[in-house]
Amino acid sequence: MADQGNIIRAPDFPEDGHEWKKYGQKLIRTIGKHRSYFICQRANCKAKKRVEWSPLEPDDLKVVYVGTHTHEGPDQAGPGSISSVDANRYNLLTQVLGDGQWQSPPDHDPTGGQITGQ
DNA sequence: GTAGTTTGACCAAGA
DNA sequence: ATCTTGGTCAAACTA
Predict the structure, then answer these.
(1) What residue ranges in chain A does DSSP mark as E strands?
(2) Does the C-beta of A21 come within 7 A of strand C?
(3) Which bases of chain B come closer than 7 Å to a protein CB?
(4) Torsions phi, psi of A77, nearest 5?
(5) Cα–Cα distance between A73 and A77 in angstroms, integer?
(6) Which parts of chain A fold into alpha helices (H)?
(7) Most CB within 10 Å of its CB: which of A28, A47, A75, A85?
(8) In terms of Cα–Cα distance, which of A41, A45, A92, A43 is closest to A70?
(9) Which pTM was predicted?
(10) pLDDT of residue A26
(11) Which residues pair with A28 in a beta bridge?
């Protein structure tokens, strides 16, 4: 079909190497951006991913990982090696795609029980 | 025929 | 008690 340049569509999201299944998309009015919902299709993997981007600035991509991959990376996928949890032991990861700029952290704990790395 | 994707509607929580 | 938003599920369509 001729791409209707009018309808907003998810831009080319960066490949994480994992298999994500899109299960929903919504426009968040509070931030005025679109948000797509993805879930890892890997068995035993309950990791979820959210991608939000500005309808007018597809360059501002923000990928938010929720949950953790119970399986190793896309290269190993070892069911018996759940050591990956050691790297993803936290439940929320936020990455900014594009310019690598964070919109504006409300000022959470910079090192309080967050991803302090250790 | 399968897989993946899309849209709409429903539900729940919070203010 | 009401309204709005966010999140998820199901069904349908296309490639």
Answers:
(1) 20-28, 33-40, 48-53, 61-66, 92-97
(2) no
(3) 4-9
(4) 45, 50
(5) 6
(6) 84-87
(7) A47
(8) A45
(9) 0.68
(10) 92
(11) A33
The strand C neighbours among A residues 50-69, by Cβ under 7 Å, are 50
The answer to whether A102 CB sits below 7 Å from nucleic acid chain C is no
Does the CB of A28 sit below 7 A from strand C? yes
The pair of structure tokens assigned to A93 is 């990861």
Q: Which residue is nearest to nucleotide C15 (CA to C1')?
A: A1
Whether A62 and A53 have beta carbons less than 8 Å apart is answered as: yes
- Tell me the backbone φ, ψ of residue A81, rounded to 5 degrees: -105, 80
pLDDT by residue (tens digit) across A3-42? 444 445 665 666 777 888 899 999 988 888 889 999 888 7
**What are the Cα distances from residue A103, in Å, to A36, A78, A98?**
18, 36, 12
Q: Which residue has the tokens 């831009």?
A: A11
